[in-house]
Amino acid sequence: MKPFTVRLRFHGDLGVFLGSKAGDAIIERRLAEKTSIKDIIESCGVPHPEVDLILVDEQTVGFDHTLANDAKVEVFRVENRDTVSTEKRLQATGISMFVADGHLGGLARNLRLLGFDVAYRQNAGDRLLLEVMARENRALLTRDRRLLMHSIVQHGYCPRSQNTDEQTIEVIRRFNLSELIAPFTRCLRCNALLEDAAKAAIIDKLKPLTKIYYEQFRRCPGCGQIYWAGSHFQKLAKRIKDIQLRVAGETDQ
Ligand SMILES: [Zn+2]
Question: Which of 30, 241, 246, 253 stands 20 to 30 A from 206 (CA)?
Fold first, then answer.
């Protein structure tokens, strides 16, 4: 078969995946056999869950589209869905359940604080992550792009930042979660939904000063942890507010 050249242009921040070519979002690939567009894109370092729209010579195509001749390819990340018709978008919307890899404990905790269902175990191996993801239809959060390229991954995201709060903002924006934020509804330790608890029912578990100063409590039915609006609560509330303001600010641009 006659060799051919594919010229790919990566839009938005997909350039971050191009390694040494970061900042230069154009890559040329010389190929000698029929190849799927998904394989070509991933050979450039960009995991398929990060790709929401592909144009080949100005036509939208799916991941299984194959190339056998010279072509110009435009690759877009998930963002502003108003600009292009949603029909050919490759990523699903409305995903709000996640599984986070062991390095993203801070992000998992932040998302739980905002009320989101995040499966997380510090020592979970790749196999367990993929299993939980598939079985419970969760989106995979990981900075391991090789894992994100696994063929069974349908929904996923690679946080760009190393900073926990910035990662949280990225995930809220990527999955369009602003409207679904429900702070203090989920256990930060085990992910279960909290229940109101009568003070009388838990009073023997409280420290003397907490008994005196607080009347409203929530309890986790999963691990038994008791929550109340103590001094730690104020700090968390400020953190949530800050994250929400930053999401709103960045969305308006
Ligand atoms: Zn719990």
Answer: 241
What's the pLDDT tens digit per position in 199-243?
999 999 999 999 899 999 999 999 999 999 988 888 999 999 999
d(CA 181, CA 194): 15
Torsions phi, psi for 240 (to 5 deg): -60, -45
Determine the distance separating the centroid of ligand 1 and the alpha carbon of 194, expressed in angstroms.
Answer: 8
| Ligand 1 center to 226 CA (angstroms) | 9
How far is the centre of ligand 1, averaged over its atoms, from the C-alpha of 156 (Å)?
A: 25
Task: Kindly give the distance from the C-alpha atom of residue 227 to the centroid of ligand 1, in angstroms, as a whole number.
Answer: 10
Q: Which 3-state string (H, E, C) describes the chain?
A: CCCEEEEEEECHHHHHHHHHHCCCCEEEEEECCCEEHHHHHHHCCCCHHHEEEEEECCEEECCCCEECCCEEEEEEECCCCCCCCCCCCCCCCCCCEEEECCCCHHHHHHHHHCCCEEEECCCCCHHHHHHHHHHCCCEEECCCHHHHCCCCCCCEECCCCCCHHHHHHHHHHHCCCHHHCCCCCECCCCCCECEEECHHHHHHHCCHHHHHHCCCEEECCCCCCEECCCHHHHHHHHHHHHHHHHHHHHHHC
Q: How far is the CA of 222 from the centre of ligand 1 (A)?
A: 5
Q: How far is the CA of 142 from the centre of ligand 1 (A)?
A: 23
Cβ(104)–Cβ(118) under 8 Å?
A: no
* Percentage with pLDDT > 90 across the chain: 81
